[in-house]
Amino acid sequence: MFAIIIGAVLLTAIDQVSKFLAVANLKPVGNITVIDGFFDLTFVENRGAAFGILNGHRWLFIAITVAVTIAAFFYLNKMKECDRVHNILKFSVMLILSGAWGNALDRLFRGYVVDYFEFTFINYPVFNVADIYVTVAAFAMIILGLFYYKEEDYNKIFHD
């Protein structure tokens, strides 16, 4: 579990550095077109979740992060030493922690989450590195759950 925590801290640091750069370089100009009609770097102060849902409820999101962290530590502690595929599950948990911590740090210290990646060809919320972590982890967990793990695999992952 120690390696997962260290990995999550390092990934959170990468997220925070990217947000620092966005605040320093993108906030003053607001928007930089990278690929016209497809992808921009757009500075957004997100005070809610995706699409601004629950705008202004930062303490709720911080509480959710604490709950996610407790649940992740609980399950990581229960997980047995496992094979390569189960390590994908552990890596996914590490990504979820990194994303949750990165956005929680923004909410704690800035009062908002710094978002800056924008696909302009679709109506999709502006997002950041922490959001990418959570999305990749969720996708991996869904794929593992739907197509790889069987009931007996879950029994092998966790102690009875």
What's the quick description here?
This protein is of the alpha+beta class and 160 residues long. It contains five helices and three strands; from the N terminus they run H-E-E-H-H-E-H-H.
Question: What this model shows, in words?
Answer:
With 160 residues, the chain is an alpha+beta fold. 62% of the residues lie in helices and 12% in strands. The chain is built from five helices and three strands. It has helices at 2-26, 58-78, 84-109, 129-148, 151-157, and strands at residues 31-35, 39-46, 113-119. Strands 1-2-3 form a three-stranded antiparallel beta sheet. α2 runs antiparallel to α3 (84-109) and α3 runs antiparallel to α4 (129-148). The longest helix has 26 residues, at 84-109. The two termini are 19 Å apart. 26% of the residues are buried.
List the helices and strands and how they pair.
Elements lengths: L1 H25 L4 E5 L3 E8 L11 H21 L5 H26 L3 E7 L9 H20 L2 H7 L3
Antiparallel strand pairs: 1-2, 2-3
The number of helices is 5
Low-confidence region ranges: none
Largest sheet: 3 strands, antiparallel
Please report the distance between the alpha carbons of the first and last residues.
Answer: 19 Å
Strand order of the largest sheet: 1-2-3
Global morphology: globular
Features:
12% strand; single chain; 3-stranded antiparallel β-sheet; 160 residues
